[in-house]
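Re: the request from the purification team.
They wanted to know what the chain is likely to look like in 3D before they choose a buffer screen. I agreed to run a prediction and write the result into the notebook, where they can find it.
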Amino acid sequence: MGLRELQKKMKLKEEMQKKKAQYEMEELESKAKLQKMTKEKLAEIAKKHGVIIALDDELKDEVEEIKKDYEIKETNVIRKLLTEKDVFNKWNRIDHEQLGMLAYQRVMVQKEETGGLMLLTDVFDLVNTGELRGEIEIDDVEKAIKKLRKKNIIPEIKKLEGDVMTISFFPVQYTSDQSEILKFVRDKGYCTLAEVCAGLNWPEDRALRALENLQATGVARYDESYRTGKKWYFPGLKKK
């Protein structure tokens, strides 16, 4: 083996070790976010999203109380933080129910960033990491998401024009105007008020009302700067 080839192999090994450390760190950070819970926080999440994160054994009684108070189904109680390894069954094949729950948990962690509304392609990116990278295809994620919907764990799956699939992970009802804006911004992930008015042939009041409603639900983020002006960004519909 030549020196150059040896150096190449050593560099590749170092990069793989860095990636492994990165995945482990991300997993630990996600776990920390989910475990720092109080009864009040658990109740708040249950009320807003119909989900209980029951990872802390010390809160076992509180979990059962909240489950009863908010009529939370057992399928919506997260009792174990899933890892990529959990997605493989005993035959080392993909367990689509577990893949769906892994996606669900990761979306829960990123609720503030995405608003719980994501494209299928973005959900794929969310779970196509670590040990699952190269082992799953987007069809696997679609199958997993449909299993979540069948169990009523998520409220809605929609297909927009051009076979673009959006997934609502939390129960937010969109008006037809809001849905039209989601279609309008799906390619670039942001818009201005003027663009919506011109593109959809709407008056300013109608466009602004729909944008502000999407902003209120956390799906859209408003930003204003001297350079770019007023814009609404849709993190869950990020541009590829």
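For the purification team: The mean pLDDT is 80.
Please add any questions underneath this entry.
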